[in-house]
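Researcher: Checking consistency across runs. Here is LysM peptidoglycan-binding domain-containing protein again:
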Amino acid sequence: MRKKGIIGCTVLAVFLFLAAVVLFSGSRSVVDANDGREKRFTSIQVKEGDSLWSIAEERMSREYDSIDDYIQEVCDTNHIYDQKITADMYLVVPYYTDVD
């Protein structure tokens, strides 16, 4: 019985250690990737002729790996499932700014 308790504690300790490593290593890479910049959101009105692609080309910053990643975030934020937008609708779009 005592042997099972020791094994259980060891397994739990290893699990907690690995969870902490994963948690803290992920946080560090996000901070490094953002290079002291903070994500914010603003609302824009879609104009005639705008597309998600043209909006992304105009507003995307270096924090995104690709234009598709930026478009996906805009769609997720605005609950757009078919990637269709129309003139005069409003979109919440992300942008990054330097942290003072």
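Researcher: Does this match what you'd expect to see?
Model: One thing to look at in this run: Helices lie at 2-34, 52-59, 67-78.
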